[in-house]
Predict the 3D structure of the following.
Amino acid sequence: MLNKTVLKSNAFKRIAIISAFASIFLVGCSSDQNYKREIDGNEDYLNSPSLKALVIPEGVSVPIEAGDFYIDNSDIEGALGKHLDIRPPTVPITTVDEAFAIYNNATVTFNAPISSGVWNSIPNTLAKQNISIVASDNNTIKTGNAVIARGDEQQPVDVSYIFKRQILGETETITIVLHTLTRGNEDLMSQPIEVQRYSVGLFNQIMDDVAPESLRTVPVKEKTDEDKKDDKESDPNKAMKEDLKDDIRDGIRNR
């Protein structure tokens, strides 16, 4: 008869080995963020044969050529397949009343009432992002090189920013300029989508920090008589169920 202790020990060892392999596999998956920016699907279209010229037999008439179904046979420039980044560009979103923002060529231009306190909140946002300030005055902020790691990127980037402010009456215009952007030895300043992602991304973080509390909570909508009527129609036994719950609660309390 086999020793049960030996069998249990061997089974435990097998489970431990399988668990170790599973842990290594899961760690490898968790560090791979490519799925967040790659197309998930069949890519056989990349191997499609090129179109051939239509051979028309002698004596056969063809319709006059029209451009409605024209197919461009020129070479396509840009990324294809897994090299195509499917993430949408980041757009500036304001959270301050009577404010607007536009993005153009590595620069976010933001205008808002001075009373909103956006300029004074910028150092706090930079500190939260571990971005140091190397020079500043009432109208200019220059940052040092900082490392930013995003959840959808395999490698972090090195960035630096310049903030400028102009005051006109009761409003201020703030410009956020992405000064440098590199990943390893690669300069990303020539890649518009990457530049926009890190320019607007920091602006939106500032906007999140200055957002009023009313924007952080979802307002609870009061149910109208029509809504209550729809609830009853969707579940005619709802009232009876509620009464039953109340009876059960009362019974528990009275024990």
Summary: The first helix runs from residue 4 to 31. Residues 24-29 have pLDDT under 50 and may be disordered. Residues 40 and 82 are 8 Å apart (CA to CA). Strands lie at 100-104, 107-113, 133-136, 140-143, 146-148, 157-168, 171-183, 186-187.
